[in-house]
Design the sequence.
């Protein structure tokens, strides 16, 4: 999607360790009208799939998921990263490693909010090794819901997650797919 | 605001320790079209104040802030709760105690995203002791930006935060103000 690719070229910053920093418009400051346009594109791609619920993971997925959910008119459920004092103990859990943070955590979704009648679209900011998607898929399937697929803003296609998950049959729609990322620039895989 | 009060009475759950659980429509599952209507109400109340930026705190503030930001057409900045490997070291920080979680953390906003020309509206889900608002105010003022005020979904008016902050001159617009909360029910302060 040209709109996102151009914005990444303009405002994205490459940091050591294959980190692409998009803090200026997605991950710390959120350009709300812009991200809403990305949400509209997810809607265009998934509007005929009967989505009843959008699933994401805190924290940076939440804004994107909400601005996408508005186009679909469906609720967003966000997986939480640790057990808090006011969450039900009756939860689905999965273990997720974070590429960016170098940590491992449990993600949690209350069983109240996913059911076998749900048709779930996963939304997230990045896809690299696919760890978050694997965890969110595990939670979706544990609930008995139908997994429609995943909408991703930025896929690091030079890492293995997207290929692995597509080979396993997951439908993944990434709005920008990065072929390579070096100090001299970013190249994208064309649609 | 009747819309929110009625929803709290219908779907809110009171837990031990004065915790009001609104996980079904705000804090874990987000009823996106509903929260967008709450955002419209914030817009109605602050539309003449020249807001240039909405400031909130991860995680549960993000969805509300984004769905409010869409009405204003301005970016959202969310304060992060800990230093991560891909955030700038050039940050504003404040220390915040969490009523719900019983923890203390540092919240962080990159200096890139707040400037003296900004007019900041703080958005958050709950106001109880006011710790998060104090931290977000501290960060806003450190940046030299103008603080317009705060839009809160649910104020626990039987706790001290709202009174303290209003006495200090902060404009706070709470969409539902809880006068009392017991096992037998919730009563609101009427506008």
Sequence:
């Amino acid at each position: 999607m040209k709109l996102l690719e151009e914005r990444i070229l303009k405002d994205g910053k490459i940091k050591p360790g294959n980190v692409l920093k998009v803090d200026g418009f997605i991950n710390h400051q959120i350009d709300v009208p812009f991200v809403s346009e990305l949400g509209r594109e997810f809607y265009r791609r998934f509007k005929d799939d009967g989505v009843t619920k959008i699933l994401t993971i805190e924290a940076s997925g939440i804004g994107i998921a909400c601005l996408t959910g508005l186009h679909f008119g469906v609720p967003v459920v966000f997986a939480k990263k640790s057990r808090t004092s006011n969450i039900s103990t009756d939860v689905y859990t999965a273990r997720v490693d974070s590429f960016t943070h170098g940590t491992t955590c449990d993600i949690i979704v209350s069983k109240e909010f996913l059911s076998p009648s749900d048709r779930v679209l996963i939304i997230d900011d990045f896809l690299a090794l696919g760890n978050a998607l694997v965890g969110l898929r595990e939670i979706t399937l544990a609930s008995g819901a139908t997994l429609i697929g995943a909408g991703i803003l930025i896929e690091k296609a030079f890492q293995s997650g997207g290929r692995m998950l597509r080979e396993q049959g997951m439908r993944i729609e990434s709005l920008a797919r990065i072929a390579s990322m070096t100090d001299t620039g970013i190249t994208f895989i064309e649609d």
